[in-house]
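Action item from last meeting closed. Structure (209 res):
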């Protein structure tokens, strides 16, 4: 296997955390987004869509989505289970993973990529250049606020985001909640349940990677 990582970006961090939680050590190549290495001919021959992370499987299949990487590693290395055991657990974990992607990850991307001067012409990741739309940045911040509030209520009587164990849903939610700092959004005392959950997940060794 070969893992294509990027130390500064949230999506590769999700896969990195998942790999660490499985106790795996996979040969890794760093791709610098700031140096545009994701758009180099060499990397595009691995992922023609020009995004990280990528996991090249033992069979030589290039997996270019977090969900695919997690699904593959969970099937290959079932212990500890990070994607549930029963049908209800599996479904709940996928549901909260999808919620975190759509309602936290995407609003951050919307806010950051449509406002940061370094991302001019790079409003969407990938091989096509898109102009920034400043109104989308404002909407992204507004949506992020709604997500933090929703999560605060959801975590009221819960230790983890989905099921009663640490799962992929915690990884995805944690990485995006943490990354919200790039648009000056942080977990504050106004959200005590979210703060408690965030500190709990942050204490895991995989969260420091
Ligand atoms: N849906 C993909 C998202 C991958 C993605 O968008 N990665 C970003 C980094 S967080 C990227 O490669 N950006 C390249 C760019 O900005 O050009 C996943 O979950 O793995």
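Sequence:
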């Amino acid at each position: 296997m070969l893992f294509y990582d990027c130390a500064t970006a949230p999506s590769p961090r999700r896969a990195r955390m998942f790999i660490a939680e499985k106790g795996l050590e996979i040969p890794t190549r760093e791709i610098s987004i700031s140096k545009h290495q994701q758009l180099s001919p060499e990397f595009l021959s691995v992922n023609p869509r020009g995004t990280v992370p990528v996991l090249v499987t033992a069979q030589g299949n290039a997996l270019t989505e977090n969900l695919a990487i997690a699904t593959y590693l969970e099937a290959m290395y079932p212990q500890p289970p990070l994607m549930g055991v029963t049908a209800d657990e599996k479904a709940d974990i996928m549901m909260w993973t999808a919620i975190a992607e759509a309602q936290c990850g995407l609003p951050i991307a919307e806010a950051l990529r449509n406002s940061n001067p370094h991302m001019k012409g790079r409003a969407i990741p990938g091989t096509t250049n898109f102009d920034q739309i400043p109104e989308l940045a404002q909407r992204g911040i507004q949506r992020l606020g709604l997500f933090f509030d929703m999560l605060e209520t959801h975590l009221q009587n819960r230790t983890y985001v989905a099921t009663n164990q640490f799962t992929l849903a915690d990884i995805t939610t944690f990485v995006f909640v943490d990354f919200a700092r790039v648009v000056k959004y942080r977990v504050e005392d106004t959200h005590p349940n979210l703060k408690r959950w965030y500190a709990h997940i942050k204490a895991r060794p995989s969260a420091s990677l």
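Note appended to the action item: The domain at 2-76 is CATH 3.40.30.10 (Glutaredoxin).
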